[in-house]
Specification:
Elements lengths: L1 H7 L19 H10 L10 H14 L5 E5 L5 H7 L4 E6 L2 H10 L4 E4 L11 E6 L9 H14 E12 L10 E7 L10 E10 L4 E10 L2 E10 L3 H8 L4 E7 L13 E8 L3
Parallel strand pairs: 1-2, 1-4, 2-3, 4-5
Antiparallel strand pairs: 5-11, 6-7, 7-8, 8-9, 10-11
Helix pairs in contact: 3-4
Length: 274
C-alpha cells in the first residue's frame, strides 16, 4: 500500500493516462450530467445562452439540411438544437448516462454510445463538430488518430469545426497541491473520502494536468485530466498534414472575430476535394 501511495503522489509523466473509469462511473456520471444540464454553469457544458449563440452561428456555416457528426455530444445540448433546424445529426459520446438522457429528449438525432476515437465512417458527413476544448484534452497520438478519422468521415469539402483553449487560459495557472475532506461524499464518490488534488505544468507551461487522488473505503483511485494551450500556428501545424485547409479562425465557437486576446480559439477546417 505504501508503494502505491508514493507512486500516486508523484508528478505524472507527460501524457500519462489514468485507468479508472470516468465517463461511465456510476456516481461521477451523475455529477457530470447535472453539470451539463445546469443552465448557469460553464462546467461540463457551457451556459445555455452561449450554446444558443453558438448553434445560431453554426447553422450559418454548415450547409442547410447537411449531415452533422457531433463528437463528445454529452446529453445532446447542441445536437437537439441542430436537429430542430432540419440537419441530419449523429451524436457520439462515451457516457451511457448522457446518451440515455439525450435519447429521452430527442428522437430526431441518432445517438451512439462510443469512444469517438473508435469511429469508422467514410465520406458520410458535411460537418464534424468537437466543442468545448475536447481536442486539447487528448494526447498527441490520440489527436492524430482523431484528425485522421474525422478527415475520413467527411465528404469532400466537408467542415471540421472545433474549439480549444489558448495560452491566455494558462496565464495564471501554476503548479499547486491541495486536499479536501469530503465527509458527506462529493463529485468523485458518494462515500466519505479525501480528495488530494494537484496541478502540474509541462512544455513551457503550455500543457497542464489536473491530478486527483481519491482516498476512500475502497482504497485509492487516480484521475488525470490533461489540457493543452494552443496558438493559431500550433493548431494549424497539427491539422494541415492530414489534408485540411484552415478556412476560418475565430475567438470562439460563436464566430467572434479573431483578436488573439481570447482564452479560446475556434477553427473551421475544410477537407479538400478528392
Amino acid at each position: 500500500m505504501m508503494d502505491k501511495w508514493f507512486h500516486l503522489l508523484q508528478k505524472p509523466a507527460l501524457w500519462q493516462r489514468s485507468h479508472e473509469p470516468f465517463w461511465d462511473d456510476e456516481h461521477i456520471s451523475k455529477g457530470m450530467l447535472e453539470a451539463h444540464l445546469n443552465p448557469d454553469w460553464d462546467a461540463a457544458s457551457r451556459k445555455q445562452s452561449y450554446i444558443n449563440r453558438s448553434v445560431k452561428w453554426l447553422s450559418g456555416v454548415i450547409p442547410a439540411n447537411g449531415k452533422i457528426l457531433d463528437l463528445g455530444c454529452g446529453p445532446g445540448l447542441y445536437t437537439k438544437r441542430l436537429s430542430g433546424m432540419w440537419y441530419d445529426v449523429t451524436g457520439v459520446d462515451f457516457s451511457k448516462r448522457s446518451i440515455a438522457y439525450a435519447k429521452s429528449q430527442d428522437a430526431k438525432t441518432e445517438y451512439i454510445y462510443k469512444n469517438y476515437l473508435d469511429i469508422e465512417y467514410t465520406a458520410m458527413y458535411n460537418a464534424v463538430t468537437l466543442i468545448y476544448g475536447d481536442y486539447a484534452a487528448l494526447t498527441p497520438d490520440e489527436r492524430k488518430t482523431l484528425v485522421e478519422k474525422v478527415h475520413k468521415a467527411l465528404k469532400p469539402g466537408g467542415l471540421f469545426i472545433l474549439d480549444v483553449f489558448t495560452v491566455k487560459q494558462f496565464e495564471n495557472k501554476k503548479s499547486s497541491t491541495s486536499w479536501a475532506l469530503c465527509s458527506n461524499g462529493g463529485f468523485w464518490s458518494a462515500e466519505p473520502h479525501i480528495c488530494l488534488e494537484a496541478t502540474y505544468l509541462y512544455e513551457n507551461n503550455t500543457v497542464a494536468v489536473n491530478k486527483y487522488v481519491i482516498v476512500g473505503k475502497d482504497g485509492l483511485k487516480e484521475y488525470l485530466i490533461w489540457d493543452t494551450a494552443y496558438t493559431v500556428q500550433k493548431l494549424t501545424e497539427e491539422v494541415s498534414p492530414f489534408g485540411f485547409t484552415v478556412n476560418g479562425v475565430f475567438d470562439d465557437v460563436c464566430g467572434s472575430p479573431y483578436t488573439g486576446e481570447a482564452d479560446t480559439l475556434c477553427f473551421i477546417m475544410e477537407k479538400g476535394a478528392e
